[in-house]
Amino acid sequence: MAKRGRKKGSDGKVSRALLLKIAADEFAEHGYHKTKISTIVQKAELTQPTFYLYFKSKEVIFQELEDSFRLKLTSLTSNSRLEKGIEEEFLPHRIAEGLSAVLHFFADHQSLGRIGFFVSENASQIKEQMAQQIEKNLLEEAKAGYFHLNVDMNIVANGLVGMIERLIITKLWTGQNTADELTKEIVTALLYGLKNN
């Protein structure tokens, strides 16, 4: 199959997006060091000069993917903060909305999720930033009266990130559970605990 370069009048956005998607899949499957530009362009049916029209190096395309993951995850985590004035009966649903958005992001962008949460050298830092944002949300929500003020929200936030990390690997990405099923289980466990009343 002949490779195509960027032809006159072709849509550069399409070629760039294709390179990003294939690169994400390659980095997610093979890791940073084993992924080669030659493989990315071969799968995209483009030439290496075309790759270099959009990205200076493998490092640059990887960084763009990592940054894209980080920005989206930060936005979703920040937006999951509960606004004031939610009636108690609607609280579980509103909590589920924020968590579901995060889990759906991981479900819909598995390669990006693998890069940001596992492949990147900054994965631990990304998870720490997520935990910090969740802790900040929880502290504000506790002040608003939704949760106990005597709970260590740092432990809760880190526990939630750990749950998400483990469940996306063992349940979500294996197809054992959907994002909505996991959301329901996590919200039930966090809000109501394990005790049989």
UniProtKB/TrEMBL annotation:
DNA-binding interval(s): 36-55
Pfam family, one: TetR_N
Keywords: DNA-binding, Repressor
Gene Ontology MF annotations: DNA binding
HTH tetR-type domain sequence ranges: 13-73
Claim: Transit peptide is one of the keywords in the record: no
Entry keyword DNA-binding: yes
Protein name: TetR family transcriptional regulator
